Structures are given as C-alpha cells and as structure tokens.
C-alpha cells in the first residue's frame, strides 16, 4: 500500500525555498508526495514541484467570509489542512518548523487523532511506522520517536536533508478544494497583520540558511564586519537576544527566538549564554571569534579565534574573496 | 477574575540534562519552574493587580502543573511571586504522556477548577525549555474549545469588555489579535519582566499548601493518558559524543586568515 505524504508549502506565491524542497525530498523517501497550498502557486513553484516528483498540488478555496488575514489564523489553517488530508488520503503530513506551522500541526493532529512530532531533524519509515529523529537539550542528546497512530504529523527543522529533485520530473496538476470553516475557527479577530517584506536576492532566511554568521555584545553595535563576512559566504545574519534588546539587529537566535541548525555557524563577539546556545548548538560546525578566550561558546566550538572581531572578520572576508577569485 | 496558569517543572538548562529509559530525568535537585512560565505568572498577577480592590479580593490566580512531588519546587516558586493557589495533578498512570495526554489532563483539571466558578483566562508560557514544542497552549485551546491567542509579546485584557488583545511577532508577520474571554493565552519572554520574590512571600511560600489531584479526582480514564494513551513512543535517547577538541588560534595579525583557511580546508565555503 502506498503511503501518501502531504507537504504544506510555505511560500507558493513566489518560489519554494530550501525548507520546502527539503520537505518534498523527505516526502518522496517516505512514499508518494503531494502538496497543499493556502495561496496560488506561481509558475516557478509548479516547475519546482514537477522537478521534485509532485503530481498533485491541492489549493485551498476558503469561503469569501474568511478575510485574507483571517486565513492565517491557526484554527483556519488547521481546518484547511484537515480537509486536504482527507481529500489526499494522507498518512503523513510534513510542515516546516515555524511557530505558526507548529501550532497548525498541533491542531491538525488533534483533529485527526494523529501522533505529533515537533521539530524532527529526520523522518524515516521503519517497520511500517513513521519515526521522527530529534536533537534535544541544546543538541546534546539524540532521540527517536515512533508514531503509533495510523496518521502522523511532523514539523521538520531546516537543514535536515539536502534537497534533491526526483530522477524524472512529472506534470503537476493544481486541484482546488473547498474548505468549510466553522464559526468556532474564527472566534479570534485579526485586528491587523503586517507581513514583513521579502527581499528578493537578499540574504537567505535565518531559520533555513546553511551558513549563519551571528553577532553579540562584542560587536558594540557595529554589525558591519558580521554582514561583510556573511555576504562573502552567502550566509544569513543573526544576533543574540542582548544585541536585539540593544536595538543593534532585529532577529535573535535562541531558545525563544529563531532556532537554527546550519552546516556552519560563526559567532562573533558572543559569549554563549545558555539561551543562545540552546538555539544554535545543533549546528554542524561551530566557529567562535571573541577577545575573551574563556567565553562558553569556545567550549562547544570546533574552531575559535581569540581576537578582535573587527580585525578578524574583515581579514577572513578578504581571504575568502581572493579564494573565490 | 479567575486565571489558571499552566506551568511545567523542567530540568535546569544550566544543569546536565539527561534521559533515563526514554524519559526526561526530573530530579528535585536540578529541576526548576520553567523560566518562560514566570512571564505567564507575571502577566496573571498584573491583570489582577490592575483591578479595583474589591474585585482583587474576589480574584484568584491558580498555578496548575502535571508532575510528581518534585514539581512542588515550581509551585512554590509561583507562590513566592505572589500566586495564591497551586494544584498539582499526579498519578502514576500519567508517566509517558505525550502532548495529547498532557493536555487532556490539564484541561480536565481546568474544568474541575471551573466547577467552583468560571475561569476567565488560561495563561501559559510560550514554550517549556526542555521540550520546546510550544504546542500545549494551542492544544489546550482546542480541547477546551476556547479562542487561542498565542506567543503574545504584549497582552492587554479589557475586564469591562471581557476581551483580550495580543500583539505577536512572527518570523514573517506582525499580528494584533483579539478574542472574547474566556481564552487561552501564551506569552513570550518579551511580554514583561517577572518580579523578584520578596522576603515575606518567600517565607510564606514554604508552608503554603499545595492541592494534589489524581486521575480519579478528575474523572479521567487512565487508558487515555500516559504511556497507554500516547500516540508517540520514544524508541531511543542517547547522549551525543562530545565535540572534538576545539582548535584555538590567538590572533596576532593572521587570525582572520586562519579562520578563512579553516573554512576552505573543511569545504565550508
């Protein structure tokens, strides 16, 4: 019997980013991949879906009584997904690990009576059961967890697999499906919703980036060297909570901020408080630059430079630029 | 105004956290009130303190947790902050509960608290620092069939209009949401600065009683919670090998070059 795997696409209106492509890669390893979108998929998205072996993408059609803003309410997203799951006869549902997606995943699993694994680093089929692998306690333990119910819902962390297109591409058909939204799903009113602008050709999204350069208190508010090195590496830029509180940068990495697990993390002027470590310790390679060799980040680093980040980072950027020619 | 704050007793993130037989070790020496729950307690106390005195007297903040006796530390921490009442749900059959078993239990306890009088608000922290799932508030809203206002960086409760409004900053959007009370609200660590306990409350907290309820008291079937009712089962939990020794370079003018060469050598560029 084929396992049907349904993937929620995060940014179908523009193009699929790496997190969605990873989910499609995992979906194909588990069974037959299908996709569901809340918005209208672009031509680029459809081409990506075809290349990744997805023959069907379900597009939600919400009642006109549900406003564009209200369509983002967790209860509405959840009922939309539930309808799609029944329609696609899905056994496994995969979502990326954003906060809104975790919430929608939870309500979906609640409605389906399905097992739920949040922030899996890998999902595999073993003995006919879906198994989620997680890295917990700030990356210090590996756990695996099998879903014992017939249906399973997973949110999956970015950088868990390398996105890989299917051996042969397929034609992707868009199928609209009507969603009945019960009144109980809209007891919350959206007073306002401002979407943050997506910068085309800008840096990759922090949560999904394969390389991240982050700055902390040691930058003294100057993120110039951080951004310069990030741009040479094609990396995302992040900060510590302290640096964000100081108003030096807008997004922080940490247990209550963005949790990352990139291939390469470079932390400059960051002491490595537990809050920050909890958000990045699962990174594959950790590099620390700090003028204090006793900073806790050094304890978990693979490579560390004791020195002034304002000297070290620009020099590293210059050498890398020359290397790239 | 009656507010239930659901809290969790978790291993201290500064301590050596570990698993035993697939379960998180929660010893009384190294455990603590989940730090993010302090923001929920602070939010609850501030709402009550903003009321006219007569209404404050009829108001109640109850902390609720599901755990063994070691979790009394967490409830006492809430008492030290000024919470008046604590309930711990404990039952051997609860061991191994997944998100759904946990939520069914907490919801049953909230319904029991409701039998004494209406509950206006259920408050939680944004996540527990051990599991970091962030889904219990959402599931509580689903189970109790109440509106959910989660991840509030700012919470305003209009007691007269009986509404709650939250501002929440997501990765891709900034939202302002409102809902009628009763509602389930989770707050982030941006919502407020939790107060420090004062000496008088610290002393009083030591002897303040804690109510302990079991599954029978909640009318819950043991088969629906714990290992028996769990939809997921832990197969393995293993500590990761320690990272290899760190390679440290002291910058004497070539530190940046050394960093670049490390990246090139390891194919990270």
Automatic annotation (TrEMBL), chain B:
Chain ranges of the Electron transfer flavoprotein alpha/beta-subunit N-terminal domain: 21-222
Top-rank taxon: Bacteria
Cofactor(s) needed: FAD
InterPro entries (alphabetical): ETF_a/b_N, ETF_b, ETF_beta_N, Rossmann-like_a/b/a_fold
Keywords noted in UniProt: Electron transport, Transport
Record-linked Pfam families: ETF
Subunit structure, as described in the record: Heterodimer of an alpha and a beta subunit.
Family: Belongs to the ETF beta-subunit/FixA family.
The protein's role, per its UniProt record: The electron transfer flavoprotein serves as a specific electron acceptor for other dehydrogenases. It transfers the electrons to the main respiratory chain via ETF-ubiquinone oxidoreductase (ETF dehydrogenase).
Protein name: Electron transfer flavoprotein subunit beta
